[in-house]
Amino acid sequence: MRFSVFISVLRSLGPVVIGISLGFTLSLLSVSWTEEACPLEGKEGEDVASGQDGLLKGARKPSSISTGNDVESEEDFEPRIVPYKQVQPSAPKKVFRAKYISTELGMRERLIVGVLTSKNTINTLGVAVNRTISHHLDIVVFFTGSRNRKVPHGMFVVSHGDERLIWNMFQTIRYVLDHYVNEYDWFYFVQDDAYTEADRIRELVEHLSVDRELYMGSPEEFIGGEMEGKYCYGGFGYLLSRSLLLRLQPFLENCRNDILSSRPDEWLGRCIIDYTSTNCVSEYEGLEYHHYELGKNSDPNKEQNEKFKRALTVHPVSDPEQMYRLHRYFSEIELQKTYNEIAKLQAEIKNVSVLAFEGNRSAQWPVGVNPPFEAKSRFEVLKWEYFTEEEIYSCIDGAPKCELRGIDKLDVAEVIDTAIEELNKKYMPTLHLKKQQLINGYRRFDPTRGMEYTLDLQLEVVNQKGHSRSITKRVHLVRPLSLIEIIPMPYVTEATRVHIIIPLTAEDRSYVNHFLEVFASNAFETSENAILTFLFIYDPEEAQHVNHNDIFIDAKNQINVYERKYPTVKIPWISVKTEIPSQIKFMDIISKKHPVDTLFFLAHVNTNINAEFLNRCRMNSINNWQVFFPIHFQEYNPDVSYHNQPPPATVDLVKDAGHFDRRSFDEACFYNSDYMATRSRMVADVQENEDILESLDIYDIFVKYSGLHVFRAVEPALHQQYRYQSCNPKLSEDIYHRCIQSNMEGLGSRSQLAMLLFEQEQGNST
């Protein structure tokens, strides 16, 4: 029994024992068979040392043994010290990153248009071309030999300084190669006496492959017929691919020197054919370059030719008026085409909606417009506004009813006219409908789809026999939101220093101490990048006693106190004498004392200025682009808003505490250069009427004379304590009445004033 157990154990462990034994045996045999010397590596004097007894004293491979051939003694071995050399870190290579990701990825815009014009036609036909195509295309460049001293507004003009036609064409192609060949795929050139249907040109290039060497236009035979091939006639314009221009670029100088021609379009065609072997074509891959030659004194509305309706370009155009008539004609064609596409898409949506789970109910009205907003709670319910043709029952100032005027009146009139027009489209010729009156009107703004209207109209219905009757019809309309367009703005930063100008009159002296206290905590203590300047305004009588009875002596003493308290702060002040305190006269004095790149903030001494607003002043004021007129939050009279109650230490931005004073234009942010440029444009009007300086304020002159964007918006960070303004009747009637209105609206809210009147009536009755 024991023997059988031993045999079974041996069978299982035997192979393992035999394997281990065999492994040890082979390893011992291999040591004796792989005897080898250590390799001598390195330079002279760095040999591996061994002792006399044959023991290897240097490094060797694990499988090697000493041969006893080295006779150097152990005493001769000296360790070699390798000096440590610190690796000097090399300057990291600066990685260049493009400003735009499209540049880094090699993405290019699709089309650039070059208009060939001249000194004599740039102000007539050139302006007409710019007005008809510039807002449809990304970029339009006008090329001319020489130009007038004054360039038309809104046009990018490149002048070559020479009237030779061939030279101008050569310079135009070279300019495009130097500045635009890496940014655009297609280059379209046209004369200023041709009308271009911009949308059709853009649609054409969108279907063309960018890697083709293409010369496309209206093919013409060369004069004389000696040269083979065809060039593109310049009157109808021509399209060049980027690949073709890059291939032509090395030979452009050869073309200028070797090719003689009297026509610039023929010269360019010979250059392209000679060096790229590319002929002008009017059709490519099923796409045609349609053009039409317009007869003399032709009326676009009377042209019935189908080629005219399909044309990309029409030539020749004799005057700007004809250019505008052509633009109107083709715009109506494109507009009708868009309406037809919309109707087709709506029909397709209706057909597809039948197959949906909810059937036709899944297709919202109007078809293709976002569904109405669905409120999740009662707080999200959109408010309907009730209106008639004369009044609206939702007013900005909280009044229950106010007159319908301005843009709101135009909106209601347009909606009613559209409703009548659509009803007649639906029922004519069986019935003809005429509006009698608007019974009820409702509208609301839905942020997901646009403005919705519901109208109850009383209509007169006339049938084909002439019989009429009066009916009431309810209609629903929607004014959909259009596509949102991002308007590029110049780059600005929050690092600009702001020069704060505070005009002071005798009535404003009591506010100086509070203003300096607030401004010191918001600006002086935080080292805000701003300079405060006071403007002391004396009338002629006060100015005579300034040496022994200065009305602003207390204010000047307070300025000295804060300058001593904050040694790094200097508060300059300027004294002026005038009978009528005009903003323009003050700014004329201040403007001359500051550099042209100064950013001004014109404010009132009763305004609380903080860093948050100063940053918005910097961001919203853009040199040579935009000026900023904030609407401050004006606190109500505390005797009215907190009647029989102590006023709080800080006033919150709530409707019962104050309102945004839309009548006030005292605060303004603008650059000195913009003010100086605007002021120079009103010199002629000032010479005719000097009183204009007193009848206008800063806001008026920027709106009337500057041409800049005038940005006016409510500013929650700009607070003013309540004050009763002293309105000067010597100023213009408009400014005087704005001041009176501001005082009236600043007393309190309608509910607060009504409560005071109610209490007064109660007191009188008892």
From TrEMBL:
Protein's UniProt keywords contain Glycoprotein: yes
GO terms assigned for molecular function: glucuronosyl-N-acetylgalactosaminyl-proteoglycan 4-beta-N-acetylgalactosaminyltransferase activity; N-acetylgalactosaminyl-proteoglycan 3-beta-glucuronosyltransferase activity
Region (Disordered): 42-74
Localization (cell): Golgi apparatus, Golgi stack membrane
Pfam families linked: CHGN
UniProt similarity note: Belongs to the chondroitin N-acetylgalactosaminyltransferase family.
Keyword tRNA-binding: no
Principal location listed in the UniProt entry: Golgi
Record-linked InterPro entries: Chond_GalNAc, CS_glycosyltransferase
Superkingdom of this protein's organism: Eukaryota
GO cellular component terms attached to this protein's record: Golgi cisterna membrane
EC number(s) from the headed UniProt entry: 2.4.1.-
Keyword set, alphabetical order: Glycoprotein, Golgi apparatus, Membrane, Signal-anchor, Transferase, Transmembrane, Transmembrane helix
Topology term for the membrane: Single-pass type II membrane protein
Descriptive protein name: Hexosyltransferase
